[in-house]
Structure formats: C-alpha cells, structure tokens
Target: Claudin
Amino acid sequence: MARCVLHIAGLILGGVGMVGTLAATAMPQWRVSAYVDGNIVVFETVWEGLWMDCISQLGLRLQCKFYDSVLALPPPLEAFRALMCLAAALAVAAFLAAIAGVTYTPRGKRGPGAVSTFVLAAGAAFLLTGTLVLIPVSWTGGSIVRDFYDPEVPVPLKRELGAALYVGWGSAALLLAAGAMHCHCWC
Model:
C-alpha cells in the first residue's frame, strides 16, 4: 500500500514538474528589465525569453517579437533552447513511463519483481529531466545576478530574474523529487 502511495505521489509531482518545464520553456519572462535609478515612473517593461522578446508599455500594450534568425542568437541561448526542449520531451516521456509503471505494477506481489521496470525508467528520466532544467535556469540566473552587480554594465541593460526562472527552479525540484520517489520504489 505504501509503495502504491509513493507511486501516485511521484506521478503527481512528475506531472506538475512536466507542466512547469513546458511553461518555463515557453514563457518570455526569463530576463525582466530592472529599474535601479531613482525614476519611479515606468513606461516600458522589457521581457527576454528563449524564443522572443516582449515590451509592455504602461501595462496596457504588449508587443512580442520572435527572434528573427536562429544563427544570429548567442551560443548560450541556443544551448539553453536545446536543453529546455530536450528536457520538455524527456519530461513527457518520463511521465508516460511513470503512468505505465503505475499501471503495470503487479498487485499483491512482493519481492524484487514486484515493481515494473517502467518505474525505474521513469525515475531515472525524471532525475535527468530535473538536472536538464536546472542547468539553463541556474546559469541564466547566475548571469543575471553577475551582470546586475557589475558596475561596467550600463543601467538600461541590467535585468532582474523573471518568473520563468522561478517556475523552472520549482519544476526542477518537483522533477527531482519525483525521480527520487520512483527510484526509491524500485529499491
């Protein structure tokens, strides 16, 4: 019974982590414009994401523009896109494997063969997905903090942590927890 509860809890955490990974990949709020001067009146807010830049004017009008050329992107952004797309695909595969593991685990059986190999595959995939999400999100967060405190970076180019980074950190934690639960069920 406890193993079944752990399976279901891991499945729920993995599902929420999968949705968070998909959301963080699509969200344009990775870097948000920072206002560090004494100017209280803010007319524009700039969002920079993996796929597009957006400008919100007075909170009323939002204009978003996809990046024109893949070849013109900086190499870290290309790598972050690839890692997040790989993580999203792996999260979906891990979630499907977790569903199969819960479905095809024999009821009432005890011992080493009591847990389906889908559970181990889902656990390993969730752990790998959490790590893949954590790398670009933490790297971006670190570069934002480094540039924010760098006196050589002009004030208009300073950015703050966006909502997508927080979603990414949360989903990475959920995916790692789901992977740990599934791997614990296997052991």
Residues 117-148 form the longest helix (32 residues). The chain has one domain: 1-27+73-186.
